[in-house]
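Re: weekly structure request thread

Next one in the queue (163 aa):
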Amino acid sequence: MTRRPLRSLRPEGFRPLSDINVTPLVDVMLVLLIVFMVTAPMLAAGLKVNLPRADTARPLPPRAPIVVTVTRDGGLSVDGAPIGRDALVAALGRQLAGDGERLVQIRGDRDAPYGEIVSVIDLLAAGGISRLALVSRPNGPATMGPSTMGSPTTGPSTIGPPP
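Done, posted below.
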């Protein structure tokens, strides 16, 4: 009995593929993408909760911000009262008096030197006052209602942490 050489069962032109099949990888990635797209809005917005009612509950009184004004000649005032630069941090410290959540708004005159406004911000930050906001007026039509600051038609807009 003569042995014949074993022939390959596959034709000569085909060789085994050594590439990775990426179709399952793409399927898994698409599923993960859909899962993250569905869960991300729930994480950002929080959960809806039906809060209980209480007869004795009263809303907290709104805290008006402290307004520091820098005039065009570099003068300072706190809530309309002129004050010196050296007494500014002490006066604000007395007004804040343990209320670290109260906002300090800085209103700089349009013609005031930029360096003066920055030096006031730096002075307040060095004194430990960290909740600061810059007040400006919007260019477009009025979108805010009347305000205690600014003109009655255009209320101030703040740049900084939310109140």
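Helices lie at 23-45, 88-96, 114-126. The chain has three helices and six strands.
Next request, please.
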